[in-house]
């Protein structure tokens, strides 16, 4: 918990001023019963109207000064709490941005959203209440008890017995409720996850007429959350009745003892009223303190959940240059799979014998985001990747070289590891074995900015952001001019529909690009990557929504790029990758074929099957 307090350090003045003004308010509140006792004993008893008026004016002054102190304390407490929440939310978001895909997959998007919104709001409320009441309420309780001893020691022993009993009740309920609030937040995570899944997949749900099943599943999650909240609510609700019972017992005892002592003349009527007021103050403050404790329990439970994310370390650790010693590169002509034929074996051996230890060239200037002029060299050396918690690797012992300007096609069945393979180049995941080199350096040795500024990537799922088409394109290069944007639209085959849109590039794109078709979204995401003019261009099955004619035009446009990037084409269509310089055929994370389109048609069984399933006529090619 101490780790979170650094986000409130800049509000030290507010954190001190808020409680101090609350203590001043408490002092004035403690004086009020003494003034009331004096009015009863001296003003009313002696029929002294002047004394009553003067004392009444004192009461009004105490009320006004107490109000000013209270408002001031509220201002400082609110400023500190809101500032703390803003700093914490920013730090949490910034930390999440540093996590790799592996950590985000493990934590889950729904729980991260909950922790950035609901959890931080709960912590903010807890800090606000703590600054206002954590000192005030104990001070009032202790001060009221001392004032009671000052008035009458025998009557004050009733206070001395009541306060520990109330403390045991409050803290006992707190101890029970704290873990239950964590359970409630976990149930809230599940409800949010179910909501997010249903809203994201609403079209699929309706297409398969699964509304009733999904409603039932959501109802179960929601009912579980409601039951959890009711259960913890019933326990925390015991606070008020139990404390009222104890206070009322104390009040009855006080009236009994006070009545006896008034009769014997050791207490005045005003002093008994003052004692009753102090007991009422103790009751009110303990109730407030109990509510503060309950809210603090929620805040503490939420703070632990936030801290758990902040303590989640990224698996992408920077590797020092000295750790990247000259790799052992033994030549091997063994096939990666038994299905690989002799020509493929020779090609594989040739690719694996590429020398990776050439002297490192001077770093490119990365102040901009454009690297026109040459492609990047990418080398995979015995690369394997196993996702956290997985039993088997998703990529296993993959080796190949992509020279500057090459086009590498990657094909395979669903779940064969195609996307995983290309995600290793921009270092969205770190390899569990082997190495990935870009221009002779291990990707783990490069900074994220330097590495990813070299790469333009189009994800499998086309994602656009709310704003204009121009805004989305400028994500690729914020300094791009009008001509560069138009060129990217032309190359990606997007200009034909952008020109028809109202306001052209200033057409407003809704969240997620939902006012565009799937093919339009894909072409715009390709244009966004091309605006960067990257050294390495990765198209991760990004033409699946395009027709064959548009796909062919796009491939032709990519071949005409003047800056000749190294292109990685992930596709399910052999027609999309048939002109690639090298094609990798993946099956269960392993390379079972490597070569050109013609070579693979002759020697790779899996590639033959994929091609035959798409083109029924024997020997037909695109």
Describe this structure in words.
The strands form 3 sheets. A 6-stranded mixed beta sheet has the order 6-9-10-3-11-12. Strands 2-1-4-5 form a 4-stranded antiparallel beta sheet. The relative contact order is 0.09. With 622 residues, it is of the alpha/beta class. Helix content is 59%, strand content 10%. The protein has 3 domains: 2-310, ABC transporter transmembrane region fold; 337-356 and 369-454 and 535-616, Rossmann fold; 459-533, P-loop containing nucleotide triphosphate hydrolases (Rossmann fold), CATH 3.40.50.
| Regions with little confidence, pLDDT below 50 for 5+ residues | 319-373, 617-622
CATH class of the largest domain: Mainly Alpha
Q: Any idea of the CATH topology of the largest domain?
A: ABC transporter transmembrane region fold
Rg estimate, integer Å: 36 Å
Q: Classify the helix fraction into a percent range.
A: 55-70%
What's the average pLDDT? 82
Major sheet details: 6 strands, mixed
**What would you call the structural class?**
alpha/beta
Number of strands: 12
Question: How many helices in DSSP terms?
Answer: 21
- The fourth-level CATH homologous superfamily of the largest domain is ABC transporter type 1, transmembrane domain
Strands of the widest sheet, in order across it, are: 6-9-10-3-11-12
Task: Write a short abstract of this structure.
The protein has 622 residues and is α/β, with parallel strands linked by helices. It has helices spanning 12-44, 49-98, 101-107, 109-133, 136-151, 153-200, 202-207, 211-237, 239-263, 269-310, 342-352, 418-423, 448-453, 469-473, 482-491, 495-498, 518-531, 548-559, 574-577, 597-603, 605-614, and strands at residues 378-385, 395-402, 407-412, 433-438, 441-442, 455-458, 467-468, 508-509, 536-540, 566-570, 582-587, 590-595.
